[in-house]
Amino acid sequence: MNKITSSGGNQALEKRPSLAVRAVKNIKICLVILPIVFLGWASCSLLCWPVLLGLQKITDTFFIPYPSASYRSMNLLSHMGLLDFPRSFVGAFGVIFLNAPLGFLIMFWGIFCFCIAYNIVEAWRKLPKRNKALRSARQRELLLRTLKQFVVGTGVFFVLCIPFLRRYEVITADSICVKEFFDWHEQVYPLASLQRIQRVVTGKGLISWDLHFAGGPVYSTTAPDMQVLEQLLSRPGVASNVEVRGHQLYLRKE
């Protein structure tokens, strides 16, 4: 009896794939999954771009309480169009992070729309083919149900976006006006008290710009419009660790 058990155990061990075989199989799986993830993320960036621009237009039109001619937005997206899609590898795959909360909400909304489209295609295939009257009734029911799901899902998406649409950074003739996600009132920083603009690079490579004002307040922003930066750096009495040369910014040796 012990011999039979031992023989069965040896046969089970012999049937197990070796470590090298399992490693090769895992590599093959990764080679299949990685291109799918790559293409999926690229598709999300391409779809995210026009929606991000559209949401930014909503912010500029409805949430900024100044006449359009009296300010310039510090948000880079406010000055870009569909053809200004980032052409660098990092930029193209970082579209979702240009406005991080909205970018991820758009990504989830896109996945939701894809699921609706997939479900309607599958349900359409299962419709009865011989009974035309029943097929027509089922088609109308399917279309109405899909439209209802899309409207409800898109409505929830816009409701979730509203706190982030309220955010703006604008520069007027005499001040920088900022309103964050959940602020009830905007914060105003007089340009006359601007003393220093500091370019800061964190350990993870994120670049931010710290604007130091007289009296201690410091305002930090990321990816501001270059024309706004040039305008601020050209103000008399403003120190910085960068300088403008021919519409380009260079680090200053200190």
Provide structural commentary:
- The chain crosses the membrane at residues 29-52, 89-121, 142-165.
- Keywords: Membrane, Transmembrane, Transmembrane helix.
- The protein has 254 residues and is of the alpha+beta class.
- The chain folds into two domains: 38-165, no CATH class; 186-251, OB fold (Dihydrolipoamide Acetyltransferase, E2P) (Beta Barrel).
- The chain is built from six helices and ten strands.
- Helix 2 (19-63) crosses helix 4 and helix 4 (100-125) packs antiparallel against helix 5.
- The N and C termini lie far apart (84 Å).
- The relative contact order is 0.09.
- Mean pLDDT is 82; it is low at 1-7.
In short:
This protein has 254 residues and is an alpha+beta fold. It folds into two domains: 128 residues, no CATH class; 66 residues, OB fold (Dihydrolipoamide Acetyltransferase, E2P).
